[in-house]
Amino acid sequence: MYTLVIIRHGQSQWNKKNLFCGWTDVDLTEKGFEDARAAGRLLKKEGYTFDICYTSVLKRAIHTAYAVLDEMDLNWIPVIKDYHLNERHYGALQGKNKTEMADKYGEEQVLQWRRSYDVRPPVLPDGDERLPENQPVYKEIMKTVKLPHTECLKDTVARVAPYFEQVIKPEIQKGKKVLIAAHGNSIRALMKYIEDMPEEEIVGINIPTATPMIYHLSDDFRVIDRSFLGDQEAIKAAIEAVKNQSAKSSGK
Ligand SMILES: O=C(O)[C@@H](CO)OP(=O)(O)O
């Protein structure tokens, strides 16, 4: 049996402001750092350890990974940063407030952008300085790969799944204990792939920040169980809060 731990980054500056974030490289808040540290302490207390960590090229996930590892005295393990684990690209919604968008376009529309499986948010326009081709971090990658200007979850699965299958899974199969520090929707994409989850089910999944998710997998990689580590009532409330981020402001 294998154990795999996946964690969403702690609260980011834009989570706090309720803005669509996607590939925008914003940092954690103080609370985000502290929650990530608390997750590291909890993992240590519960006897977890890691041999290798995978994260995205976005600092909210990288800083979460290191906060967790620091609390576990595991700063020395390899931390692999790869854009395949980036958040879903949120196109032209990046930087927009989720409540304001719900007030303007209706909750249904925003829910469709946030959680439908195959509806892409509006694309970032040509020439926009936020496009991957205008970011130094993607310069080398862009020579061989076409990077997105928007993504639906299906697109995110298409980049996350092969990375998991070809890079991460072989390490788990070698017996390495793996931590993945990623993002709400890149984690949903991983779950969809690992669990072979139906589309109807993944649309209803919301991931709380800085909460370790534990997978037990059989030797042939079937899911034995999946659970969140921590206070289950608090986790339930955190999941609801993520779900409700795109509610209209009261009175609208
Ligand atoms: O803004 C984002 O990039 C994501 C995660 O924070 O938001 P949502 O939960 O709406 O998909």
From TrEMBL:
| Keyword check for Transmembrane helix | no
Function according to Swiss-Prot or TrEMBL: Catalyzes the interconversion of 2-phosphoglycerate and 3-phosphoglycerate.
Q: What is its EC number?
A: 5.4.2.11
Q: Which protein is depicted?
A: 2,3-bisphosphoglycerate-dependent phosphoglycerate mutase
Q: Which PROSITE patterns match?
A: PG_MUTASE (PS00175)
GO biological process terms held by the UniProt record: gluconeogenesis; glycolytic process
Per UniProt, which keywords does this protein have? Gluconeogenesis, Glycolysis, Isomerase
Give me the reactions it catalyses: (2R)-2-phosphoglycerate = (2R)-3-phosphoglycerate
Q: Which InterPro entries would you find in this protein's record?
A: His_Pase_superF_clade-1, His_PPase_superfam, PG/BPGM_mutase_AS, Phosphogly_mut1
| MF terms (GO), sorted A to Z | phosphoglycerate mutase activity
Stored Pfam families: His_Phos_1
Q: According to UniProt, where does the site described as Transition state stabilizer lie?
A: 183
Q: Which residues bind substrate?
A: 8-15, 60, 87-90, 98, 114-115, 184-185
The record places the active site at: 9 (tele-phosphohistidine intermediate), 87 (proton donor/acceptor)
Instruction: Give the protein family.
Output: Belongs to the phosphoglycerate mutase family. BPG-dependent PGAM subfamily.
* Pathway entry: Carbohydrate degradation; glycolysis; pyruvate from D-glyceraldehyde 3-phosphate: step 3/5
